[in-house]
Design goal:
Elements: H1 2-12, E1 25-29, E2 35-39, E3 51-57, E4 60-66, E5 81-85, E6 91-95, E7 105-112, E8 115-122, E9 127-128, H2 129-154
Parallel strand pairs: 1-9
Antiparallel strand pairs: 1-2, 2-6, 3-4, 3-7, 5-6, 7-8
Bound molecules: 2-acetamido-2-deoxy-beta-D-glucopyranose (2 copies).
Length: 156
């Protein structure tokens, strides 16, 4: 819950986080050096849920993991990636063994039931997932402090 509330805050209050755009996709590196892509697009309730994670560098798009019927991931990713459903909606894809050999500039894409988002991240700019969690938590508590402050100001 805290997680989804904070993501929403980050979308509507870009002042709290310097890169202003609200993205439904985040990319980070886990402690064990796996690449994690979180896709926060929620499946529409009346549709069959499906997901597809892919990336491209240059013009070539490679499917990493998918359960869209009729679509399949590239063979090199087959035993290397897993997808789990996120509690608050959306999907998390984890990819093992490619972090060190990423091209300089990679565009990560995800699709959930037809809706899609993408983000381009340079290899050097990938951050640790632990840092992301910290950032979200700290901007959330920052926001609460701000609310308390305004509440206090207007009621005294
Ligand atoms: C894809 O996976 C999700 C989550 O496991 C599941 O709910 C959905 O039905 C799957 N979709 C297809 C087309 O198999
Ligand atoms: C990386 O990709 C983005 C978006 O396609 C592009 O604007 C940027 O110039 C690229 N950077 C490098 C160093 O190639």
């Amino acid at each position: 819950i805290l997680h989804s509330v904070s993501y929403t805050l980050l979308c509507f209050l870009p002042v709290l986080l310097i890169p202003a755009t609200c993205k439904l996709i985040t990319v980070c590196i886990e402690d064990d050096n796996d690449l994690r892509v979180d896709c926060l697009i929620k499946a529409r309730p009346n549709k069959i849920a499906s997901y597809e994670f892919s990336w491209s560098s240059g013009t070539v798009e490679s499917v990493i993991n998918t359960n869209v019927s009729g679509s399949s991931p590239e063979a090199r990713f087959r035993d290397k990636s897993t997808v789990e459903e996120l509690e608050d909606g959306g999907y998390r894809m984890t990819l093992t063994g490619f972090t060190d050999t990423l091209p300089h500039n990679t565009t990560y894409m995800c699709k959930v039931t037809g809706a899609s988002d993408d983000i381009t991240v340079e290899k050097d700019k990938l951050i640790a997932c632990s840092a992301v969690t910290f950032l979200i938590k700290s901007s959330f508590s920052w926001f609460i402090s701000l609310l308390v402050f305004f509440f206090y100001q207007t009621h005294h």
